[in-house]
Design goal:
Shape: elongated
Strand order of the largest sheet: 1-8-3-5-6
Distance between the termini: 6 Å
Largest sheet: 5 strands, antiparallel
Structural class: alpha+beta
Oligomer: single chain
Radius of gyration: 17 Å
Order of helices and strands: EEHEEHHEEEE
């Protein structure tokens, strides 16, 4: 018998320093029901405007360092035309980086696991110097056998 499966979890991540951080294991650990899903989708929604989610290289940490360097070079702080500076010099650039990368991901689930490629991992982009805890709403849907 095939059954529809739905699970929603609020995942709270501890504070990370500014940069890109692999969070795949945190996400999977928060969703024990994923092991039951034969075919499905996992939707991740980050409830913040100064951080982001992306999928990229999970093996070589220099990729994460290079991504941080690229975004800091591309979206500079202390630009004279920024008006939204109430929370510090990193605030408006963090909003822009979040918009560029996005705050949501949809990942296929196959045979009880995320169907990521060999070198892919889920990353949190922390774009503030002191961003604090971050919250993700994870919605898992699929078919169990």
């Amino acid at each position: 018998m095939i059954n529809n499966f739905w699970q929603s979890e609020k995942i709270t991540l501890n504070s990370y320093p500014r940069g890109f951080h692999l969070i795949t294991e945190h996400v999977v650990a928060a969703l024990p029901g994923i092991k039951q899903v034969e075919v499905g989708l996992l939707h991740l929604w980050l409830q913040h405007t100064s951080a982001s989610l992306t999928i990229n290289e999970n093996a070589d940490p220099t990729v994460r360092d290079d991504m941080e360097a690229f975004f800091n070079h591309s979206v500079k702080e202390n630009l004279a035309f920024f008006r939204h500076t109430y929370e510090g010099k990193d605030d408006m650039p963090a909003h822009l980086k979040s918009s560029i990368l996005g705050c949501q991901l949809t990942i296929p689930v196959q045979q009880g696991a995320l169907a990521l490629g060999t070198w892919q991992g889920v990353m949190l982009g922390e774009h503030r110097d002191h961003g604090g805890r971050r919250t993700i709403i994870a919605t898992l849907q699929g078919i169990t056998a």
